[in-house]
Amino acid sequence: MADLPKLMKSIAIREPGGPDVLEPAQIETPTPGHGEILIRVAAAGINRPDTIQRMGLYPPPPGAPATPGLEVAGEVVAAGAGVTRWQVGDKVCALVGGGGYAEYCLAHEAHALPVPKGFSMVEASALPETFFTVWTNVFERGALKPGETFLVHGGTSGIGTTAIQLASIFGSTVIATAGSEEKCRACEKLGAHAVNYREQDFVEEVKRLTGGRGADVILDMVGGDYIQRNIQAAATDGRIVSIAFLNGSTAEVNFMPVMLKRLTLTGSTLRPRGIEEKAALAAALEAKVWPLLDAGRVKPLIDKVFPLEQAADAHTLMEKSSHIGKIMLTL
Predict the structure, then answer these.
(1) In contact, 219 and 152? CB cutoff 8 Å
(2) 41, 96, 138, 246: which sits with the fewest CB atoms below 10 Å from its CB?
(3) Are 17 and 54 in contact, with CB atoms under 8 Å apart?
(4) Would residue 170 count as lying in a domain?
(5) Residues 128-150: what's their mean pLDDT?
(6) Domain assignment of residue 309, yes or no
């Protein structure tokens, strides 16, 4: 740590509000504790929870940095006591509890993964938050199996583009909703049947595409009136997994179809989970998904890259919802 600066560049949230409350700040460079590594950040991902935190609606969990940012990639520059896997100089990407919008960021060693073969740091930093989220919700909670039909809303978001690729490569039929012809074409290019929700009723389209069966697993980040419509679109024994509520978390719902179709309604958040849970997710991804990344069979879509100092512009783009894939920061 002797050759590292005492202070580092970061992005601070001046007060709860719009993108303009994000501003450059100098803060103390963190020191890794037991089981932690310190990463010199080359790139960091922008995720929807970052914007919610900025608005004051999603506070960091206890012990997490106030600096936003949930995924990074870079070089290990220091390791705390008890670290066995990583050494100074290793190139990694990592899921973090916060602190990604900065020159240096702490990560638990078990939440870091090697940069896949041939990946740039920007591409590597686009992986952790989205791939951890998709894996735990689609393949663990949703238990998606080969041959089943998977419906994902927000098909061109970072989560959506990841979910389409993984569900397709593991043998499922994928249907994705999106809000423009350009976005629908992007979903189709990734392997999904696309439904333009502004022009088509996704419930009717799912029924049509499945011969009346419906979707076995639905990944929803919309909420609101989609809660009832997802129940209508689900197949018998279907699983509906909620991970966000862009249109609100309350709705008037008829639960009779839940009983009659034996549906499972579930959901999860990732950030507050414990070290062991996240470590188990990292291990599952490394065993089952990282070989696909190394082979070039799956790759994150990058919409736009901003320098760290332009984090406010990156948040503005995120909130326009015009992006296709991930929005990134570089240092």
Answers:
(1) yes
(2) 246
(3) yes
(4) yes
(5) 98
(6) yes
Residue with tokens 């899921």: 95
Enclosing H/E stretch for 277: helix 275-288
Residue 199's CB: how many other CB atoms inside 10 A? 10
d(CA 86, CA 174): 37
Judge if 240 and 152 occupy the same domain.
Answer: yes
Whether residue 2 is predicted with pLDDT greater than 60 in this model: the reply is: no
As given in the structure block, the two tokens for residue 89 are: 């100089």
Provide the mean pLDDT of the chain.
97
- Placement of tokens 């938050």 in the chain: 129
Measured CA to CA, the distance from residue 264 to residue 257 in angstroms comes to: 11
The first and second tokens of residue 330, run together, are 């570089």
Taking only the tens place, the pLDDT of each residue in 288-306 is 999 999 999 999 999 999 9
- Asked whether residue 230 falls in the same domain as residue 135, the answer is yes
Q: What is the span of the domain harbouring residue 172? A: 131-267
Residue pair 154/247 in contact (Cβ under 8 Å)? The answer is no
Region 167-184 average pLDDT = 98
163 part of a folded domain: yes
In a domain? residue 280 = no
SS percent in the chain: helix, strand, coil, step 5: 30, 30, 40
Mean pLDDT across 64-86: 97
| Residue 1 pLDDT grade (very low, low, confident, very high; cuts 50, 70, 90) | low
The interaxial angle of helices 181-190 and 158-169, nearest 10 deg, is 30
Q: What percent of the chain has pLDDT over 70?
A: 99
Task: Look at the chain and report how many structural domains it folds into.
Answer: 2
Strand-pairing partners, residue 73, are 43, 93
The upper half-sphere exposure of residue 285, i.e. CA atoms within 13 Å in the direction of its Cβ, equals: 32
Say yes or no to pLDDT of 281 above 70: yes
DSSP notation for 115-165? PPTT--HHHHHTSHHHHHHHIIIIIIIS---TT-EEEESSTTSHHHHHHHH
